[in-house]
Every structure is written in C-alpha cells, then in structure tokens.
Amino acid sequence: MKPDVLMTRPSTPAAAEALERSFTLHKLWKVEDRSSFFKEVGPAIRGLATDGGAGAPAELMRALPKLEIVAVNGVGLDAVDLKYAKEKGVVVANTPDVLTEDVADMALVLLLAAAREVVVGDAYVRSAAWERQGNRPLTRRVNGKRAGIVGLGRIGRAVARRLEALNMQIAYHNRRPIESPYVYYADPEALARDVDFLIVTAAGGEGSRGLVGRGVIAALGPEGILVNVARGTVVDQPALIEALRENRLAAAGLDVFADEPRVPDELRSLPNVVLQPHHGSGTVETRAAMADLVVRNLQAHFAGGLLPSPVDLV
Ligand code: 8YV
Asked: Where is the D-isomer specific 2-hydroxyacid dehydrogenase NAD-binding domain (predicted)?
C-alpha cells in the first residue's frame, strides 16, 4: 500500500510523476469540491508535498488529521505553520543547499542588471532607439563597491562569495553576528548608510517583516541599489516603490514581491527596476534536485528512516 500524499500546487510534471511512483498522489489544485475532498480523502492523507508559497497553514493541516509529514519544495518555511506542526508532532522537511547557488546567481544577475541597466539597454537596441537617438546615458559600476547583505545564511554567503570575485567590500546584518570574514552591523539602517548595494537574503516570516523599511531605504540613498531574492515581506514594498519613483533610491532588482504573483502596476511601470517571477531556484537542474529531495524526504519518513533534510522544530 502506497502512503497517501497530497500535493498542494503543480511544480514540474516530473516532480508529480516522481511522487506518483512512490505514493498515492492527490493533487489539490485539481480538486473541485474541497470540502467533500477533505471529508472523504482528508483522513487518509499522511504526507503533504508543498512549496514555499503554498506552504502548510494550520487550516490545511487541521483538515488532514492523519498528517505525519510536510515536505516543502523550497527552503523558505514562512508559509508553514511550524508551531502547529510541532504541537501535532508533524515532521517538516525542506530543500536547503541544492538551491543555494542558483538563488545567489539570481541575486548577482539582478544587481548587475539593475546597475548596468541591462533590460533598458536591451529595449534600447531592439527598438532601434540607439540608431535614432544615439548613445544611452552611462550606467553604474558594480565591481569594487561596498555591498551589504541582509541575512548572511547559506544563500547570503553564496552571494558574498560572488561579490568577493567582483572585489567588493562586504558587510552584513543578522540578528546576531556569526563567524564570517565580513563586517557585522547590528543596525540594518547603519549598514544601508555605509554601502552602495543592499542584498536581501534573509528568511521570511514575522521575524523579518518590514526589516528593510522606510529608514533603511532612505539610508541606502539616491545612489543605492536594493536587491531582494528572499521574500517580499522583508521589504516595505510601498516605501520601496515611493523611493524608486522619486529617485530617492537609484534602482532595485526584485525576484520576490509582497503578494505574488500580483505586482503593483506602479512597480511594473518603473524604468529603474528589474523584475523576475520568483525564479531564484528556477533552473531545470535545481528544480529537479529539489523535487528529488522532496521525494527522498517522504520516502525516508515512510520507511521509518532518517530524513535527508529535516527541519529542526525548536
Ligand atoms: C521556490 C523558494 O520558488 O526555496 C524557496 O523558499 O521560494 C523557491 O525556491 C518555491 O518554494 C516554489 O517551489
């Protein structure tokens, strides 16, 4: 008998196929009548395969009384009610490490694209404006500048390694200093004041909500660039839009937003932002590795073994 696993949202077809080989898979997005599904099938579900966005809210877990494990296809746990999971003895697993380098690549791409105005430049060539109007205005140098990392975890460190290759001075803000070669700032505003670029790689959730607020954005200043590959909630989005519109911040590179996939018109129409559809981990290679890790976590749990990447529910 294959254990019953509920998948919250489609990821790649290969991920669902891999889950189907080992489990009786139920696809929540295909369910038309959720209340009868939860009544009839809910009590059979022992595993939940979800992603960073859909997560596992308490409301969903409550509808699955025999739930044993939540396997997240992602590293961020802000959408998983960890307190509820712990209370109910539900095991949680995520997919750290396998996505680190790709998310760090995205941070670098966004920083370079925002500073060098790559997207605007591309449009300038495509529209033949170059021929008609001549050379574009100059852009901003990236190499050799000062960068601040908000959230020096696995992804933050991978970003820092890339910035080292660009001869940058690197500082960071975490709640507490950690063992690292970089300069620590206890105050994110002081960090923003001292750097040219601020790169957000902090975990989402209530603890970091609005961490990059009005004051931090003002401190980064009219020559500053903000990059966010973490969660939209970490940045005060209305304050960011206002600063970009009024050129109190030079530019931003954003892979994440406050209410995905909705992005305010105002943000979409600004020329000094580079936007991505939450694609930090979105490469064929990494999504395959993440899907594989989700399957292996579920398999290990149902085989009564140790999970490859369990979340420590403190
Ligand atoms: C995924 C993410 O895009 O790892 C995370 O926390 O946000 C991303 O890698 C997301 O989990 C969807 O699979």
From this structure: 109-280
What digits encode the pLDDT tens for the residues 297-310? 999 999 999 999 99
Ligand 1 atom, smallest distance to 103 CA = 9
Both 87 and 173 in a single domain? no
- The enclosing domain of 72 has a CATH number of 3.40.50.720
Residues 155 and 134 in one domain: yes
pTM, full prediction: 0.97
Residue 216 domain boundaries:
100-275
In a domain, residue 311? The reply is: no
Q: What is the largest CA-CA distance in the chain?
A: 69
Q: Considering the domain boundaries, does residue 268 fall inside one?
A: yes
Per-residue CA distances from 100 to 16, 66, 290 (Å): 23, 33, 11
Catalytic residue among 173, 231, 296, 301: 231
Residue 231 is among the residues annotated as catalytic for this protein? yes
Q: Tell me the C-alpha distance between 185 and 178, whole Å.
A: 11
308 part of a folded domain: no
Cα 230 from Cα 105, distance rounded (Å)? 13
Please indicate, yes or no, if residue 24 is contained in any of the structural domains: yes
| Residue 24 shares a structural domain with residue 164 | no
Top mutation candidate among 29, 278, 287 for ligand 1, by most atoms within 8 Å of CB: 278
Beginning with the edge strand found earlier in the chain, give each strand of the sheet holding 251-254 in spatial order. Answer: 183-184, 169-173, 146-150, 197-200, 225-228, 251-254, 273-275
**For the segment 124-159, what is each residue's pLDDT rounded down to a tens digit?**
999 999 999 999 999 999 999 999 999 999 999 999
ipTM reported for the complex, 2 dp: 0.96
Q: Is 248 one of the catalytic residues?
A: no
- Residue 141 three-state SS: coil
